[in-house]
User: Fold this.
Amino acid sequence: MTETLNKRSQAITAGLNRSPNRAMLRAVGFKDGDFEKPIVGIASGHSTMNPCNAGIGSLATRAEGALKAAGAMPQIFGFPTVTDGIGMGTEGMKYSLVSREVIADAIETSVQSQSMDGVLAIGGCDKNMPGAMIGMLRINAPAIFCYGGTIKAGTWKGVALTIVSSFEAVGAYGAGKMSKEDLDGIEKNACPSFGACGGMYTANTMSSAMEALGMSLPYSSTEANPDAEKGDSVARSAEALVDAIRRDLKPRDIVTRKSIENAIAVVMATGGSTNAVLHFLAIANAAGVVWTLDDFERVRLKTPVLCDLKPSGQYVATDLHKAGGIPQVMKILLEAGLLHGDCITITGQTIAEVLKDVPAQPRADQNVIRAFDKPMYKQGHLAILKGNLAPDGAVAKITGLKNPVITGPARVFDSEELAMTAIMADSINHGDVLVIRYEGPKGGPGMREMLTPTSALIGKGFGETVGLITDGRFSGGTWGMVVGHVAPEAFVGGVIALVNEGDSITIDAHKQLLQLNVDEAELARRLAAWVQPAPKYTKGLLAKYAKLVSAASLGAVTD
Assistant:
């Protein structure tokens, strides 16, 4: 392999010929002959704190063995992970989106400081995928992402469960619609194995998008963590990475405007998370690709929702895997002219070559993936709304609703906790529009997800009749009349900061409108009287993040 090493590897090899470098590497297992091999980092998100990442340790070991067998010298290092399901509804959730940047920084620091030839990242929870991708694109050494795998569905009294079932059960129990026995039963059975949240929530959305982007192997994004095929896929990923090092195939060769469009088409077709909007703005930024909110809308208008997946549908990721996985979805889109088949993937094959043997139509013995002419919805579900409340844009998930239009009185809350208190106290009425503000990237800081209040609303029977807008964001498990990522955010003086209790607000997904029904003169008067709140944090990570972070409409990036 020595003669096939790229320029980066040759420079590293020259450096390793210095005696101190070699001496330190001998201490971690290098022997004569190993110094000419490419050094490959294994970025491991293993953590025993959450089921999403608790099964990654063994996968990192599997990757280590496969890299050695392929002629590389693997070196394992870790990156931190935040579990949204545990942090949800608490101050800890403010670190969730921040962790995307921390993960990117950790991978960049480890790979660049130790002059590694490539990196194989293994992650499970929501921010692992975009964080790793941003880091890989900054470094631009050969890289591959390996998903730690989805969780298997739990069951209680014959009903399939995901973690979102627990959040919705809290609302239902609080409304007197569920017994304590069922509340406890759902809690104890919602997460039966290791793996990331089972619906087409953010983790599975982003893993699917990584596969569609070409940065993960086919079928790898919907495999369950406990299954043997997950480890086999990681081993094949290691082999593919070593081959990419030989060919000097790098992330920015793969992540292009066309491949990002492929990924977003798959997000739309699978009914994926609103967080994909935020993350792909950031991924495009790291790749040096021009991609805006208007591009999401362009893809949405021509891409149908083909998959019947939770949170607004019936099935989970393991069902999608059995039905043909992401390759089946991609082949349907390719046949319809909605994918760029000439995009290169980490295997060296084009998308069209990868999908060559995949059937053009979904199997008749399953209901998870629909045929192109019989979609769940004729257009995508992630709509970009604008109006005087969000002149720079906001994001709404509009599927699963009978009528995604509401005009009602504003119920204004300056934090998630205040809104949750009102919901659980039964002071919210049908027709209300909740405004949860000062939860944006700078104002939160960290742009918390609002799964706790949205799930409570659904549990109390308000899913179709109460609107909610926020400069925060939503879990991939959220559904309902909800609009997030409102920009500009309240902390910088966005119109959302000027809403008064009782003001009329219109959410109209058909017209893509988010409007505060107050005249411009009154808004100007309110803005003149508005005073920016003091920052909530003045030291530490959150304070640094608040100073650096961009608007949600730009991906909430820090570089």
